[in-house]
Amino acid sequence: MILQPRKSSPILRKRCENLSNPVITYFGYGSNLNSEDWKQFCSNEGFESKGLREICKARLPNYSLIFHQDSISRKGGVADIVEMEGKCVYGALFEMDAHAREAMDEKEGVRFNTYRPIWIEVRTFEDEIVKALTYVTTTRKRKNHFVAPTEEYVDLIRIGLLERGLPTENLDFASRGENFV
Description:
Elements: H1 10-17, E1 23-28, H2 35-45, E2 52-71, E3 76-97, H3 98-107, E4 115-124, E5 129-137, H4 151-163, H5 169-175
Antiparallel strand pairs: 1-3, 2-3, 2-4, 4-5
């Protein structure tokens, strides 16, 4: 059962503040945790980066971070999440307006069938369950083996986790292929 945020919830208040430009809640777990990477992408591609605003840190229970997709632009494996009982993916919740959603779809390669958006249930660190959008690798792009990420790419994610005081052990395991299923 999905528990909707209480009316006093800051997440719900942020969603309702500006109904003329509705926002959705987005869960970032990979390079999108790195604000400089997001700003650089938006600048390079002609998007504004301000439509993606952080709400709070969060975790996605019963999922694992994994590298099983190759990226030409990242020169190695890129982050994905897969269901895995007992595991947890750390990240952050953001509010994302329509302009940021368009930019995120472009960054994630939705039109090229690289990643696809899905709705998931994440938990805030206050233990509130929130329905959020995130992106996962499409079956077409997923490899049946570990694809090693570059140190530079892993560091983008590591910086995003550390800036929020989130653990990096799952990233370390995943970036070495130790949790590949």
